[in-house]
C-alpha cells in the first residue's frame, strides 16, 4: 500500500495564522512531495533560500499547456495557470522579456507616485461612504475591493461599474475546487468576449490607457501584439490588479488590528507605514498556493535532485517565515528593515505590478489612520473567515467598527 501524500495547500484553523505544517516541513522535509487539489503530485518547496533559488532560475517558468505539469485546480484543464489563455502570454526567454518591457513602463514607481493623489481621494470617498452607512461595516466590500478595482480599471480604460461581472469571472478562473470545468470554460469565454469588445472599441478610438497603448505601440522589433495576446494580457492584468491587492488590503488591516499595539504604533509614527506594509506582506499566512515552476531539466535544491518534469510548488509565504532568513521570523516587527520577503516572487517572473500594490497598500493604510484612528475589528480575530478554494488567499469579509 502506497503512503498517502500530504494535501497542499494545508488547512488552517484561523484566517491569520500559518499552518503548523510550514515550520515542520521547513525543519524536516523542505523539499517534499504533496498532492494538489487536482489529485496530481507536485514537490513543495518551503525554505527561503530554496524558494528563491527555484523562482530566480531563468530556465524554469510557469507551466504551459504543452507541459505535462501537475494541475493546480481540480478541473480538467487545471485552472487559469494551465489554461489556453495563460499559454498565449510568452513565458520564456526574449519573448517574455519583451512582453514585460512593454508593460513594465506602466508600473514604475514614478507613475505610481503620480497616481497617488487620485488613489487617496478615492480612498477618502469610499471611507466616507462606509462611515455614512454606519457601523459595523465590511471593510473588504466597502474599501479593500472597490479601490484596487477602480485603480486598475482606470489604468486599463475599462469601466469599474462592471466590477461585479469580472469579479465573478476572476473567482471562477482562480478556483481550485469551487467550480466545474464547464463553469470555467464559460467564465473564460465571457471574459474573453468582454475584453475583446473593449480592445475593438479602443482600436477604433484609442484613449490614454494601457490597452490603447498596447494596441497602438510596437515592441522593440517593430511588431504589434495580436488580439489574442492583447485579450490574455488585459484579462491577466484585471485579475491580478484587483484580486490579490483587494485581499491583501483586508488581510493587512486585520493583522494590524489583531494586536491593538500595532495600530497604536502607526498612529504615533506614520513613518512606519512603508515598513509596516512590507512586514504585512511578509507575514501574510493566507497568501494562497504560491507559484508553480515546471522543471525542464534535473535541478538540485535543498540537497535533493528533482528530475526534469517535476512541478515545483514554491510557497513564498512559508519561506517568508524562515528563521534562517529573518530574525524572529514569527514576530511582526513594523520597523523591520531590510525586509527581502518573497511575497511578490523573485527573478524574471516576479510580480510586474508590485509598485502598484505597494502604493495602494500604503495609501489605504495612511488614509485609514487619518480618517478612522479608532478603527477596530468588530469580531474576534479568531472568528475571521477565510476565502476557501481559490488559488489566492483572502478573507470573506472584514467586519470593523470605529
UniProtKB/TrEMBL annotation:
Signal is among the record's keywords: no
Family annotation (InterPro entries): Cyt_P450 (IPR001128), Cyt_P450_B (IPR002397), Cyt_P450_CS (IPR017972), Cyt_P450_sf (IPR036396)
Pathway: Antibiotic biosynthesis; vancomycin biosynthesis
Required cofactor(s): heme
GO molecular function: heme binding; iron ion binding; monooxygenase activity; oxidoreductase activity, acting on paired donors, with incorporation or reduction of molecular oxygen
Keyword terms of this UniProt record: Heme, Iron, Metal-binding, Monooxygenase, Oxidoreductase
Organism domain of life: Bacteria
Family to which this protein belongs: Belongs to the cytochrome P450 family.
Protein role: Involved in the coupling of aromatic side chains of the heptapeptide of vancomycin.
Protein name (database record): Cytochrome P450
The species this protein was found in: Amycolatopsis japonica
Amino acid at each position: 500500500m502506497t503512503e498517502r501524500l500530504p494535501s497542499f495547500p494545508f488547512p488552517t484553523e484561523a484566517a491569520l495564522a500559518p499552518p503548523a505544517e510550514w515550520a515542520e516541513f521547513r525543519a524536516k522535509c523542505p523539499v517534499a512531495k504533496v498532492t494538489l487539489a487536482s489529485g496530481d503530485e507536485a514537490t513543495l518547496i518551503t525554505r527561503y533560500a530554496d524558494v528563491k533559488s527555484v523562482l530566480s532560475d531563468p530556465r524554469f517558468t510557469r507551466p504551459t499547456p504543452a507541459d505535462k505539469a501537475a494541475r493546480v485546480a481540480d478541473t480538467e484543464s487545471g485552472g487559469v495557470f494551465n489554461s489556453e489563455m495563460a499559454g498565449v502570454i510568452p513565458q520564456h526567454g526574449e519573448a517574455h522579456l519583451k512582453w514585460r518591457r512593454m508593460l513594465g513602463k506602466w508600473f514604475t514607481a514614478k507613475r505610481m507616485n503620480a497616481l497617488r493623489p487620485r488613489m487617496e481621494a478615492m480612498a477618502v470617498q469610499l471611507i466616507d461612504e462606509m462611515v455614512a452607512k454606519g457601523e459595523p461595516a465590511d471593510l473588504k466590500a466597502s474599501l479593500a475591493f472597490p479601490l484596487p478595482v477602480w485603480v486598475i480599471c482606470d489604468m486599463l480604460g475599462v469601466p469599474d461599474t462592471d466590477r461585479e461581472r469580472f469579479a465573478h469571472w476572476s473567482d471562477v478562473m482562480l478556483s481550485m475546487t469551487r467550480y466545474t470545468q464547464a463553469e470555467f470554460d464559460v467564465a473564460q469565454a465571457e471574459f474573453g468576449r468582454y475584453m475583446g469588445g473593449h480592445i475593438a472599441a479602443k482600436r477604433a478610438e484609442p484613449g490614454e490607457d494601457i490597452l490603447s497603448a498596447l494596441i497602438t505601440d510596437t515592441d522593440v522589433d517593430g511588431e504589434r501584439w495580436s488580439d489574442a495576446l492583447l485579450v490574455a494580457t488585459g484579462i491577466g492584468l484585471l485579475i491580478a490588479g484587483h484580486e490579490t491587492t483587494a485581499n491583501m488590503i483586508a488581510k493587512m488591516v486585520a493583522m494590524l488590528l489583531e494586536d491593538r499595539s500595532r495600530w497604536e504604533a502607526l498612529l504615533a509614527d506614520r513613518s512606519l507605514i512603508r515598513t509596516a506594509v512590507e512586514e504585512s506582506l511578509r507575514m501574510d499566512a493566507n497568501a494562497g498556493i504560491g507559484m508553480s515552476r515546471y522543471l525542464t531539466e534535473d535541478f538540485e535544491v535543498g540537497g535533493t535532485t528533482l528530475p526534469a518534469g517535476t512541478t515545483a510548488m514554491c510557497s513564498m509565504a512559508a519561506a517568508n517565515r524562515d528563521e534562517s532568513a529573518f530574525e524572529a521570523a514569527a514576530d511582526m516587527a513594523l520597523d523591520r528593515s531590510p525586509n527581502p520577503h518573497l511575497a511578490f516572487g523573485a527573478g524574471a517572473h516576479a510580480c510586474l505590478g508590485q509598485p502598484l500594490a505597494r502604493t495602494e497598500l500604503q495609501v489605504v493604510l495612511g488614509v485609514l489612520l487619518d480618517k478612522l484612528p479608532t478603527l477596530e475589528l468588530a469580531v474576534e480575530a479568531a472568528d475571521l473567515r477565510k476565502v476557501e478554494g481559490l488559488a489566492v488567499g483572502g478573507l470573506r469579509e472584514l467586519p470593523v467598527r470605529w
